[in-house]
């Protein structure tokens, strides 16, 4: 599991680096480029994504009076309306074939898209470990500072709200009856990715650590489950 998170984080950071590099390269290009006016003389069509994406084909004259033509790397479904329009063009004097349409969409949209994907992958890699670490810290705090009670184990239920690789985890359900207050409390353990029923049959009670200021914050002790099960207990969810 940690390898997957590490991969997402690494890949996200790599994409973010690429995004920043693309934006920097584009800024350098704009700094050294010449500006002129071109005309959209044709439209390239791409149907590969299940819809019509139009790419403007732009013609312009460089500083030497030579006619050049290029197809924009950025297209959209609405670019068809650009046919025949005059448009600002940026180009390098010694590489007019590398010209592009001036403006954010023509210059920086690709780096923005890469950056958005980079942020997404980085968050996928960083947030789960941070959340798990936060939950672990809370669990350790409850076990050291919380109020322990003996709760009766009622059984195990499947947590259908969570699914990993097509499998939903189990949660142990236990009950505590506060007779002086005439109240009954139910507690759910963290997610368990094996059926704990065989071990539940051997136990009637387990310890629940309660936050002294908020009974809704608690930790159900399931350390008595077999430790030899690799990554058996996940801390993605739980009360």
Short description:
With 239 residues, the protein is α+β, with helices and mostly antiparallel strands. The chain has helices at residues 2-32, 104-107, 109-145, 197-200, and strands at 34-46, 53-61, 67-71, 86-92, 95-101, 147-158, 170-178, 183-188, 205-210, 218-220. Residues 228-239 have low confidence and may be disordered.
Describe this structure in words.
The protein has two domains: 2-113, no CATH class; 146-239, no CATH class. The chain has helices at 2-32, 104-107, 109-145, 197-200; strands at 34-46, 53-61, 67-71, 86-92, 95-101, 147-158, 170-178, 183-188, 205-210, 218-220. Residues 228-239 have low confidence and may be disordered. It has a five-stranded antiparallel β-sheet with strand order 3-2-1-4-5. The protein has a five-stranded antiparallel β-sheet with strand order 8-7-6-9-10. α1 packs antiparallel against α3 (109-145). The protein is built from four helices and ten strands; from the N terminus they run αβββββααβββαββ. A hairpin with a 4-residue loop joins β7 (170-178) and β8. It has 239 residues and is α+β, with helices and mostly antiparallel strands.
């Amino acid at each position: 599991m940690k390898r997957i998170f590490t991969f997402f984080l690494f890949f996200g950071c790599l994409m973010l680096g690429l995004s920043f590099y693309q934006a920097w390269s584009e800024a350098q290009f704009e700094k050294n480029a010449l500006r002129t006016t071109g005309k959209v003389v044709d439209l390239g069509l791409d149907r590969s994504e299940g819809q019509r994406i139009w790419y403007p084909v732009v013609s312009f004259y460089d500083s030497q009076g030579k006619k050049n033509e290029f197809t924009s790397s950025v297209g959209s479904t609405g670019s068809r309306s650009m046919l025949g329009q005059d448009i600002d063009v940026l180009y390098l004097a010694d590489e007019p074939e590398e010209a592009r349409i001036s403006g954010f969409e023509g210059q920086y949209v690709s780096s923005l898209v890469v950056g958005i994907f980079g942020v997404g992958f980085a968050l996928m890699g960083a947030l789960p470990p941070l959340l798990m670490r936060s939950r672990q810290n809370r669990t350790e705090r409850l076990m050291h500072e919380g109020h322990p009670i003996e709760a009766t184990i009622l059984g195990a239920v499947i947590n259908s709200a969570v699914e990993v690789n097509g499998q939903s985890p189990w949660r142990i359900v236990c009950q505590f009856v506060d007779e002086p207050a005439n109240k009954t409390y139910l507690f759910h353990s963290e997610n368990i990715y094996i059926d704990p029923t065989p071990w539940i049959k051997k136990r009637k009670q387990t310890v629940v650590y309660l936050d002294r200021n908020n009974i809704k914050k608690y930790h159900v002790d399931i350390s008595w489950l077999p430790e030899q099960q690799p990554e058996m207990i996940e801390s993605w969810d739980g009360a």
